[in-house]
Amino acid sequence: MSAIDRDPDIGFCRDCLTYQEERLHRCAHCGSPRILRHDELYALTVAHIDCDAFYATVEKRDNPELADKPVIIGGGRRGVVSTACYLARIHGVRSAMPMFKALKACPQAVVIKPDMEKYSRVGKQVRRMMEELTPLVQPISIDEAFLELAGTQVLHRNPPARTLAAFARRIEDEIGITVSVGLSYCKFLAKVASDLEKPRGFSVIGEAEAIDFLKDMPVTTIWGVGKAFAATLERDGITRIGQLQEMEEGDLMRRYGAIGQRLYRLSRGEDARQVHTRDSAKSVSAETTFNNDHADRETLVAVLRSLSEKVSRRLKKSDIAGQTVVLKLKSADFKIRTRNRRLDDPTCLADRIFHTGLSLLEKELDGTKYRLLGIGVSDLSSADLADPPDLVDTKATQRAVAERAIDKVRDKFGRDAVETGYTFGRQRSARPQRDRDATGPKSGQTGD
Asked: Which residues are involved in binding Mg(2+) (predicted)?
């Protein structure tokens, strides 16, 4: 890097990329107010890139008449909101909101059925452009990813911050959508930063400011703290991250178990996780094709449990987890049914995969005979943030502890050393024609 790239007093314009040596409110070259300055701007290399209201933005790109209208992507009145543009969000529309509530909040909204094939195509374009910046791209979903840009300065002849600004501008010019960028020294704060100034945001959180920056933020900012756990923390008088910063690690672990250690570290901006690639794998799954078709619950549930354990073993072995559980069924007339459910947190536990798959399977037990049954997970991520203790459903937590104990026994004495009541003496009656494990090339599907 040149001397100018190492001077924290020198910022640059996000629109024309011109360096700004004087502290003006607008770019000296193009007049843009989007000037980026930060004391650690040229030292940070971990980024989180998130497409803004992705589905809705793609639809507006393809239909200019929607530009100034609130747009909701989702099903009919009985469906739910997949995403909404920022105009709709101003009226209170949120992802996963029932459609009738969304339309009550914003009756003038234009509702569009999701076109996942199109969104996937655009997402792949963005991904390819990310991979031109650095080989270390860790996809989180179709429209977001972590990037590690350490060592790319020579290649791009720019520090990472300026490379990312050029990337965001290129996405707008060539693909016609917008992204928000978070830049920091760790993944946790890069993700926090990308959410700060949407849309078209570019936020920076440095290491020197991390503790002060986090102290006034709600505990839900921390990964793994969902509504249920946040309610538990609130009952204990904890609502802000600063309160966690004042507590001892041992005290947090005594209160909340393993997640207490995560609370302690992330509240202080300590996150040692690295950005890593996952090659082409989008899902981990297993499926069985039967010699004889089956419609009875007992047989299908036993096979589902066995396959869930198989998927769980592969996830644990690879130290990854999935946040969406996908059930696959093929009927006797070769028609395929796929059903999926997104979890609050990623999982690698057989128990959670099985019970989620079971709730999906129950709705398909309508007398149809099936020749194939499969279960898997997609939306893969590192296992280090998977399966936080469930402080609401204590039985789920007890089952998780029991499962890990069973894993240890099986590791020592073999897979058949312990069987659950669901599978004991039953799954063999299904007489599978073939049993397949797969890390699938497509999310929610198995590979050959």
From this structure: 50, 143
